[in-house]
Amino acid sequence: MKKHNFSAGPCVLPKSVMEQAAAAVLNFDDGLSLLEISHRSKPFVDVMENARSLALELLGLEGKGYKALFLQGGASTQFLMVALNLLEKRAGYLNTGTWADKAIKEAKIYDDIYEIGSSKSANYNYIPKGYDIPEDYDYFHCTSNNTIFGTQMKSFPNSPIPMVCDMSSDIFSRQLDFSKFDLIYAGAQKNMGPAGTTLVVIKEDILGKVSRKIPSMMNYKEHISKGSMFNTPPVFAVYVSMLTLEWLKNLGGIKAIEEENEKKARLIYSEIDLNPLFKGYSVKEDRSIMNATFTLENENLKETFESMVKEAGINGINGHRSVGGYRASMYNALSLDSVKALVEVMSELESKA
Ligand code: PMP
User: What family classification does the UniProt entry report for this protein (predicted)?
Assistant: First the structure.
């Protein structure tokens, strides 16, 4: 039976990518596995370079002073690397969810952080708006998509200071003017590849402005000067990310996938809104096209719904414990058919109730 994988990440990847990745584990170059060749060998250096340039190309940032890195330690390490590399006096953070909150906690190790806006008191069901970004701060940090709560920033401020964005759960899913951002980071394990690497895209001229000594592994400049090969990179994760970026490019890039993502989001949200058994969690205007969060209004139907979901081959829709209910994560590689399968179950439940 076809499985419909709505997992929040790690998550569904394109089948063709999985097949190529599996083949490379057995024979990548001249009978040797991708996992047993030197990361300094030409075939792997080519993979790294290709992945780095594909990332910039897809984001429309080639030739604009940006560098792409594939680092380790997850997006969580970026919470502190950003502060170590950019924070001198003060930074402003938009607190839109658990991950933004964690980024604030790490940056606070180094200095006072100002929360420019927060939706914490509403358990993050909306994106704060109408905030001011002080001109004399070092940088402004935001999270484009809140994976747990299912909210998404639909527009970004014209920041007078460098803008840093955690795009872990919606990078490469929608068209944005990426040149508005000075630093973008994203764990690979949603729209880009397997867990194990984090894409960091940096405008080089924002670096080198803090007075502290930065340990080499934490220093963006060090990673840039070594071509993202300061130490042994996560070869498998980088290779599969490269394949996924190639897959996206061949589909027609971000513009093409955005159209698909919007179709999927329209389908699920119209069912949530029309079906009286379900209720959306996020306020409508801030709904994420990647993670749809919703609750079942009648607890007595929970068991029936969940067994129908299981029977339909639908996997990974349990909500995060801090929100409850359900979360359908619809990353780039999830097909419209999978969303149709979930919507069918939801409407069938209504006809049974
Ligand atoms: N930021 C966001 C928006 C996330 O969704 C996640 C993980 N789900 C993280 C950061 C943390 O990423 P990692 O597990 O790679 O550290």
Answer: Belongs to the class-V pyridoxal-phosphate-dependent aminotransferase family. SerC subfamily.
